[in-house]
Amino acid sequence: MGEEWIIDGNYGGTMEIRLNAADTIIFLDIHRAICIYRAFKRMIQYRNKTRPDMGEGCEERFDFQFFKWIWEYPKTKRPEIFKRLEQLSNDKQVIILTSLKEVHQFLKKVQFKP
Questions:
Q1: Can you tell me the distance from the alpha carbon of 57 to that of 60, in angstroms, rounded to the nearest whole number?
Q2: Residues 6+ apart with CB under 8 A from 7
Q3: Per the domain annotation, does 1 fall within a domain?
Q4: In this structure, is residue 7 part of a structural domain?
Q5: Which one of 35, 41, 78, 103 is at 20 to 30 Å from 66 when CA atoms are compared?
């Protein structure tokens, strides 16, 4: 079996490299209201603390620019990502999940093991 890895995020500077290297792309296309809610909830839960998934010293704080980025994402970033996904070769599997229910169903189907 060859090398296996998982990477997340949508950093545009390396997206083309990552899309070309991947055999499977899972795009979480969750409604922006849910994303705003979850970011706000996370901010409250970890206020002035470092989240377990962040590097030491990266304390959670309110960042207006980040919330603005989330809200504008469907108009500013999403169309370009869909364009890139459509241009991928047919040998890549693209999975688009649009709800928590779809995410749970997908995880059950692949029997995800961390």
A1: 9
A2: 18
A3: no
A4: no
A5: 103
The predicted model scores a pTM of 0.80
Adjacent-strand bridge partners of 94 = 25
Q: How many H-runs (helices) and E-runs (strands) does the chain carry?
A: 5, 2
Residue 12 tokens read as 């545009």
Phi and psi (nearest 5°) for 32? -65, -30
Task: Report phi then psi at 92, rounded to 5.
Answer: -100, 140
Domain count across the chain: 1
* Structural domain range at position 62: 12-110
CA dist., res. 21 & res. 19, Å (int): 6
pLDDT digits (tens, 9 = 90+) for 52-107: 888 787 878 888 999 999 999 999 999 999 999 999 888 889 999 999 999 999 99
